[in-house]
Amino acid sequence: MATERRGHFGNWKPENVKPLLVEDVLPRFVFLVGFLAVWQVIAVYFSQNLLPTPMAVFQESISILVSGEFFYHLQNTVRRVFVAFVAAWFVSIALGVWMGLSERAEKFFDMGIIIGITIPGLATAIISVMLFGLQPLTAYLAVFVAVFPMITLNFWEGVKDIDLQLVEMGEVFDFGRVRTIRHVVLPQLIPYMLSAGRLALGLAWKLVVIVEFLGFGNGIGYMLTSEYNQFNMAGVLAWTALFTVIMLLIEYGGFKLLERRYLAWRPNIEIRGQA
Amino acid sequence: MSTTDDTVIAVRGLKKSYGVSANRFEVLDGLDLTIPQGDITCILGRSGCGKSTLLKCICGLEDVDGGEIDGDTDDLGYVFQEDRLLNWKTVEDNIRIALESNDIPSEEHDDRIQHYLELVGLAENATDYPLQLSGGMRQRVSIARALAVEPSILLMDEPFSALDEITARELREKFLEIITELDQSVLFVTHNATEAAFLASRIVVFEHEPPAAIERTIDNDLPYPRDIDSKEVQELKREIITHI
């Protein structure tokens, strides 16, 4: 059974290198080159020197990296993102599953979730800073409150989509509660866990930057403020670009690999030409 | 227990209804049915006549309102109309989880998986995932899963009706071959008269309006193996249809 994978990422066999380059790397490379080219053209011909060229931003990024500043601020931002993200993710699974399973819980919480989604992130950040001042808890809380309604919604939908016919099958074959949750229910929620993870991480970092902007003494958001105060556009873009690279690494190194590991059975990732 | 040695399941005075008070809807109202060991009993009837409800009551998916079901109802295999495989588990692990749940000692698992996959002709596909297989192959896995627990009775709820005709035909032949070889007791629900005439050793025709009542029981003594296109099977089918 020669199983040919459509995505070759993470499948480093010699015979896969060519398809890997053509199918996986090439389209993304073309996008990146196109993006930089458009940026270059706008910077040189249309921005009256307000927008620095990609090269200028690249040089600025290198000097930020060399100075060692980047990792200091990154570490602070990542800690804030991570703590709030993990807390929000676990609380949302519990709440989302509860809401999906119990009609009473659904009716009790759904308005709270909608309100939570509606409140602007900036408002949570400001309220949090005003209430708690500039301490670590403030950042965690602001991000948590902003992120967790969104991903609770995600899990809630996920639980509603669970295939009850499979649960029934488990009942007929005497799976019992533990085996049913572990092997029948949770695997159906994994796609939702991954998408909730992505969504939450993206939201969390945007929120952390806003909180840092409001007055923390370190972090990516603080550095963005500081570059902004000096009206250093190349600096603002360099900090943004560096953080974006980190997020891309998390996406391709983390979520894509998790997806490959846990969703290998899905036909869009597996196999072609199978009898 | 009042079941005798050669009875697998005995249903007596089974009652089941849905809804409350004015909207109460009797599906089963005092049904009696006995399944002898080694028999292939087909319940035949139109959609909505209560035949699937009977299966659900026997396997415990539905609570009954009255009457009794005697026999080893913990020890069943079930094949649904859909394959109901766990798509995130390989073919062999789909069978393994059923074996684990039925407390089959783990040293027997590999042999059983191998044996029953061979029976349904899928020994080669043990490590495939369900979505890599065709619909007919998936239903064969589902049959292997139900047989692998070596149930006292195999319950089947229109297992071939979602497949295309050619596949269904092949699968029925294969299935009959396996079942007669294993001397497996089967309770098979269908609305397909040809299928009943071909497979069953006994055909129980339900009246077409619920509550389910037995319109007629037809013994089918045609010797196995049978040919679905033979004159005898076709004649029996015509006879059955007059009772539905």
From TrEMBL, chain A:
<feature type="transmembrane region" description="Helical">
    <location>
        <begin position="81"/>
        <end position="101"/>
    </location>
</feature>
<keyword id="KW-0472">Membrane</keyword>
<keyword id="KW-1133">Transmembrane helix</keyword>
<keyword id="KW-0813">Transport</keyword>
<feature type="transmembrane region" description="Helical">
    <location>
        <begin position="108"/>
        <end position="131"/>
    </location>
</feature>
<keyword id="KW-1003">Cell membrane</keyword>
<dbReference type="InterPro" id="IPR000515">
    <property type="entry name" value="MetI-like"/>
</dbReference>
<feature type="transmembrane region" description="Helical">
    <location>
        <begin position="25"/>
        <end position="45"/>
    </location>
</feature>
<dbReference type="GO" id="GO:0005886">
    <property type="term" value="C:plasma membrane"/>
</dbReference>
<dbReference type="GO" id="GO:0055085">
    <property type="term" value="P:transmembrane transport"/>
</dbReference>
<dbReference type="Pfam" id="PF00528">
    <property type="entry name" value="BPD_transp_1"/>
</dbReference>
<feature type="transmembrane region" description="Helical">
    <location>
        <begin position="236"/>
        <end position="258"/>
    </location>
</feature>
<feature type="transmembrane region" description="Helical">
    <location>
        <begin position="203"/>
        <end position="224"/>
    </location>
</feature>
<keyword id="KW-0812">Transmembrane</keyword>
<dbReference type="InterPro" id="IPR035906">
    <property type="entry name" value="MetI-like_sf"/>
</dbReference>
<feature type="transmembrane region" description="Helical">
    <location>
        <begin position="137"/>
        <end position="156"/>
    </location>
</feature>
<comment type="similarity">
    <text>Belongs to the binding-protein-dependent transport system permease family.</text>
</comment>
<feature type="domain" description="ABC transmembrane type-1">
    <location>
        <begin position="74"/>
        <end position="254"/>
    </location>
</feature>
<protein>
    <submittedName>
        <fullName>NitT/TauT family transport system permease protein</fullName>
    </submittedName>
</protein>
TrEMBL record, chain B:
<dbReference type="InterPro" id="IPR050166">
    <property type="entry name" value="ABC_transporter_ATP-bind"/>
</dbReference>
<protein>
    <submittedName>
        <fullName>NitT/TauT family transport system ATP-binding protein/phthalate transport system ATP-binding protein</fullName>
    </submittedName>
</protein>
<dbReference type="InterPro" id="IPR027417">
    <property type="entry name" value="P-loop_NTPase"/>
</dbReference>
<dbReference type="Pfam" id="PF00005">
    <property type="entry name" value="ABC_tran"/>
</dbReference>
<dbReference type="GO" id="GO:0016887">
    <property type="term" value="F:ATP hydrolysis activity"/>
</dbReference>
<dbReference type="GO" id="GO:0005524">
    <property type="term" value="F:ATP binding"/>
</dbReference>
<keyword id="KW-0547">Nucleotide-binding</keyword>
<feature type="domain" description="ABC transporter">
    <location>
        <begin position="9"/>
        <end position="233"/>
    </location>
</feature>
<dbReference type="InterPro" id="IPR003439">
    <property type="entry name" value="ABC_transporter-like_ATP-bd"/>
</dbReference>
<dbReference type="InterPro" id="IPR003593">
    <property type="entry name" value="AAA+_ATPase"/>
</dbReference>
<keyword id="KW-0067">ATP-binding</keyword>
<keyword id="KW-0813">Transport</keyword>
<dbReference type="InterPro" id="IPR017871">
    <property type="entry name" value="ABC_transporter-like_CS"/>
</dbReference>
